[in-house]
Protein 1
Amino acid sequence: MTLNRYSKAYRGIVKNAAAEQGKLLRLDLEGAGGAVLQNKRSFGNYGFQSRPTEDSEVVYLRTGNSIYVIASDNIAIRMELKDGDVVMNSDLKNFIKVKGKGGIEVDSDTEVIVNCNKIKLGSESAVKKLCTEEILSTIAGHLHPIVNGAVGVSLDPGMIALPLDPKNKTQKVEGE
């Protein structure tokens, strides 16, 4: 049995994308031979959703009078990938790339929001670094001379001493 026995696959161009009840994606397409196809359901892989931009390409199946969009793509937002790479990206060039040779890269021109009760960063084989606005504020308010009277910040404990308690500005710290 083959899929062709039950339906035919066609290419089309997205003209409009709209969410039905906020969730189910419906597309207006320019189909094979210039056919206008309106309000056609789009399917995606479990756990993934996308809303293609106008002029994105799609592949759709026609079974009788029903049409189902099963894939979409937009060459304008494709990235160069190496063997084994997997990427999830948006039309704004934001992306998450899982690299085939190891590693994960996240890039955003705006912001990355993580909402969770607990977050764990770092590894046993790497130096763990996490800098919050509170830490930056503490550093900015407590610059100490480093070498030859120059003022700056260094993570070398022999060169800078930051208060252990940022609220206690009179606390004696090593190096003062």
Protein 2
Amino acid sequence: MVDTMHCLYLGGFQDVCSCVVRLMIDSNAWGVRYGSAAEKMKRSVLAMLPDLHAYYARNGVDNSSRVNDFTKEMLGSQRKPALKLKGVETKTCLGFVAAMLQRFDLGDQGKALFIAGQAMQSIMHIFATHGRVIPDDQCVVLCDHAKRYVRRVTAGLVPDTPKRHQFLHLIGKVRVVGNPVYYATLLGERLNGVLSGIAAVAH
């Protein structure tokens, strides 16, 4: 689906967040010293939670946008990092991982992911500060941010996915169809359940 929910929140945002969280754990950013790999991951997640909640408190993040149940099972595997969040949770999580990348030195990969996250936040800022029509000069800026994002996530070793290709289409057609926040298919993933229920009753 070429919309902000799937191409950004459940696409680029989630890609960056999942790789940064995995990188912090693999780099032992919180200094977990004992246990098996699985136990260290579990303890790292527990050590990360106070930082996450402190970030939410500092930035006044609404409860509906917070990750309230963060477990190691949400992180996928080392070979295939994942972060199973709701769309609304990824936006604030992106800000959190950006703050952690400024706090921890995670090498060139961390620097690349930080720049990728900044590019995504800049794109969302342009969407948020314009109406349905985005001026031509800002369309050019959007394309610049999109290219910077793709270059940096590649350098950050983020696995390629079809959503990244869809994201480029989303940005590329802004000049023709307008600001994508105005034509997203659904405002929230939970509405999929509502739609499914209506369809079930109709049959």
